[in-house]
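Tutorial, part two.
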Amino acid sequence: MAVALMALTATAAMAQKADMDKFIDGLMSKMTLEEKLGQLNLLGVGDVSTGSVLNSPVGAEVEKGRCGGILNINGLDKIKAMQEVAVKRTRLHIPLLVGMDVVHGYQTIFPIPLALAASWNPDAAEQCARIAAKEASANGIDWTYSPMVDIALDARWGRIAEGNGEDPFLGSKMAAAMVRGYQGDYSSRENIMACLKHFALYGASAAGRDYNPVDMRRARMFTQYLPPYEPAVKAGVGSVMSSFNLVDGVPATGNKWLCNDLLRGMWGFDGFLVTDYASIREMTAHGLGDLQTVSAQALKAGTDMDMVSEGFIGTLEKSLKEGKVTMADIDLACRRVLEAKYKLGLFSDPYRHCDP
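Running the prediction step on this input gives:
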């Protein structure tokens, strides 16, 4: 009986993937290069008012098909107005992905993650995430930048309150529970996409100083700092956010070993990878080159969506002409973003999360 049920489940999953692949193949066959790059561009709105959506700089970019997602917009009417620009005023009517930091509750406020972890109760964490998703999804939010699972030993690090402390076993249990709570199986209108952050080792920044390098041997990485990320991936997390710090002397956002070899190759992550806030542009401060150079490096490393740096939308066409990236690189990143929107049900109902 159990074997038969597993076989039916696997068959259904294969059929769903085939349907998704067919839909996205058809959509991408119609897309111009600029429209593909637009899907890789995530812009911060800064909370525009309903009346000024069309006249705002972000609204203008959405209308041109040069924006795949938005963040930091609050209020159902504002979000719905911006979504209408995407689905009614663009050539291909591709919906936006709307993100926000829903970290320890949305309307109902729960203890900070560090305090919640102190309960050693993953079931409670999962329920908190489910309630947060239910409330956020009723107010236009599709995507939360949570859970943050960075192991932190140094209390001087300013983001320690957002994680689960220093224990890799506890952190692993809490990470998977939060993903299950936010996402479920995407079948409900109350499911939103989780985003695992910060990949990777952000909590190990030298001297507890934000953005500092991380310098450690691989054995310690895998036994102490990396364990909480993998269970979240295995739980099916739909997106991952790269971190600001250096790992092995390379910024995480452009680190092929982290983003491609480990995350996708070793762990089998099949979602999309988004940068942290402006982290592509900040790679230039490490002496790696201008915005065009670091944008190409990030894409080649496995990054799919650029948060507010506008490096992908502004430079990848030139890099493509110069042979620094390939059309296959761009297509793969675009596909991963579109797959996220498909899994969330936004193509069948762009206003899925705009109905209180």
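The radius of gyration is 19 Å. In part three we will examine how such features are distributed along the chain.
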